[in-house]
Write a structure and sequence with these properties.
The chain has about 260 residues and is an alpha+beta fold. The protein is built from four helices and eight strands. The relative contact order is 0.16.
Length: about 260
């Protein structure tokens, strides 16, 4: 039996949630997508690394080191030229310091080449006016390792337009600010052709490059940085770290410690 108050001939339908069409014929406006700066992967935060150890059994040494590293929070893809790491800047810094320290503790001469990138238009999929970002983030203080490293560092703010906040692109302004920060950290040793030379504890040297990369990234969407570290080089003989600061003691007063 059908109650008299219900019209059995009229189907019951839920109200439509679709946006109403414009009477003028224009399609409804699309909902804005997620903000790519909210996640590291969405903003293309990552690194490519290549490690080399000067020993005949380098393959065994490298495989052993990589198998022990903590990759929590990171995507890792290893190829025949380099290894890609993707994830939060804090996890990247931790992984790079751990890797460089393990390379140094082999006591063999080793090198580590790092390319950092964030905000690359090829990685960030968005339709925001003026691009995506910038993305501002903080990274924890570095872990000191007690191991010395020398490095060559280059920083590239790839700014080609005024940001949504009105910041004009100025590559050298941002680079000089990052170099001043390296001076404050005590890792700056001088400027050379195309690079800035850094020296000090492995943790401080890597943190210097990461800090400059992030500092520029506060006002520039796409920032890349190159860092090449030298560990246990024969030319490092006699260079010791000051335990309290992690900086290099002057050659004339440095004491060899075992």
């Amino acid at each position: 039996m059908i109650p008299a108050s219900v019209d059995a001939s009229a189907p019951t339908t839920a109200p439509s949630t679709a946006p109403a069409a414009d009477p003028g014929g224009a399609p409804p406006a699309a909902s804005p997508g997620p903000d790519p700066t909210e996640t590291p992967q969405g903003f293309g935060v990552g690194a490519r690394i290549t490690a080399a150890v000067m020993t005949e059994d380098y393959a065994r040494v490298l495989v052993g080191i990589l198998s022990r590293l903590d990759g929590t929070g990171l995507v890792r893809e290893t190829g025949d030229v380099s290894t890609y790491l993707g994830g939060h800047e804090t996890h990247l810094q931790r992984y790079l310091i751990d890797l460089a320290e393990d390379l140094a503790r082999t006591e063999h001469h080793a090198t580590l080449a790092v390319t950092l990138s964030r905000g690359c238009p090829g990685e960030v999929v968005c339709e925001l006016p003026g691009g995506a970002g910038p993305r501002s983030t903080e990274v924890a203080a570095p872990r000191r390792t007690g191991r010395y490293a020398s490095a060559e560092w280059a920083l590239y703010p790839l700014a080609d337009q005024v940001t949504a906040g009105g910041t004009e692109p100025d590559h050298m302004r941002d680079i000089y600010a990052a170099i001043d920060h390296a001076r404050e950290l005590g890792t700056f040793r001088g400027s050379e052709h195309f690079v800035t030379r850094l020296e000090g504890d492995i943790g401080d040297v890597i943190a210097t490059a990461v800090a400059g990369w992030l500092q520029v990234g506060r006002s520039v969407q796409h920032v890349t940085s190159h860092l090449t570290l030298s560990l246990n080089s024969p030319s490092h003989e006699g260079r010791e770290l000051t335990p309290a600061t992690g900086t290099v003691a002057p050659a004339e007063t440095a004491e060899v410690t075992r």
